[in-house]
Amino acid sequence: MEQTNPQQLAGIRAYLKQLSDPQRPLEQIRREMSEAPSEQPTIVGLITKPVNVNGLYGEWVSTAEIEISGDGSKPVVLYFHGGGFVAGTCRFYRDMAARISHFSGVQVLTFEYRLAPEHPYPAANEDALTAYYWLIEQGYSASQIMFGGDSVGATLALMTLITLRDRREALPVGAFMISPHADLVHLDGDSYVTNKELDPTGSLEGNERILAAYLSSWQSVPPEILSPLRMNLTGLPPLFIQVGSMEVLLSDAVRLREQAEQAGVDVTLEIWDNMWSVFHFLAYMLPEAEQAIRNIGMFNRQKLLECNR
């Protein structure tokens, strides 16, 4: 695999660090996320189709060679966006969703869950379930659905799996998780310290801010579901985890893999050297990011094919 020049990587990390002040105002975070797509190239053949997901704005995303059916006739990836519970839009995630669609060979559904602090816990968790149930209402079976997400979106995917399992409802074929927060309450992974100076986008301080915004009045007694790492993971479908070696969430990913293995879950962890949280956004310029998404596509194809022969 082609690798990015170390000097170029260092320059990218320095640039990202300048943009990632954990104390910047919420309005600035949302504005930057809104403006970013117009400043970056997108994958050739990007196709989007807006849809109402039981009151939530959603988008079907694919590339030219992949048909958007939206009627349960073809498998789908349900993608939960990141953004620290306080930001994130379908538009911001179009390019990455299209690349996932391209390498997976299936359509992707993104949606905009309610954001904190205006809508604290359990709003995002409820909306994640709403999106899954909406797909079922459209004619999709659980065996046609793959979950995916990044950062807190990856955590939402995992929490939704646990909730569905506890309700004894049909589970999707699996989930891929990019830089998941395996524990949004305790924030006690070793890499919060060991990678403090290496991570250009993440920090303990930033994640404490995320937690405060989403928990709101629940801070004194945080819900158990926000600490998947400390829950029983038995019975979950296959999991595919990707994390960068430089990010503060590295320990979360490693411990999640260990916890899932102990519970008998089929789990794979990829640690990408010299990478940071959700480096996948730079797939248009980083060969490592494109390969990481290609690996996600291979996982999705394999698991969806196994369940839809």
From TrEMBL:
GO terms for molecular function: triacylglycerol lipase activity. It comes from Paenibacillus zeisoli. SUPFAM superfamilies: alpha/beta-Hydrolases. Transmembrane segments: none annotated. Belongs to the 'GDXG' lipolytic enzyme family. It holds the Pfam family Abhydrolase_3. This is Alpha/beta hydrolase. InterPro entries: AB_hydrolase_3 (IPR013094), AB_hydrolase_fold (IPR029058), GDXG_lipolytic_enzyme (IPR050300). Residues 77-280 form the Alpha/beta hydrolase fold-3 domain. Keywords: Hydrolase.
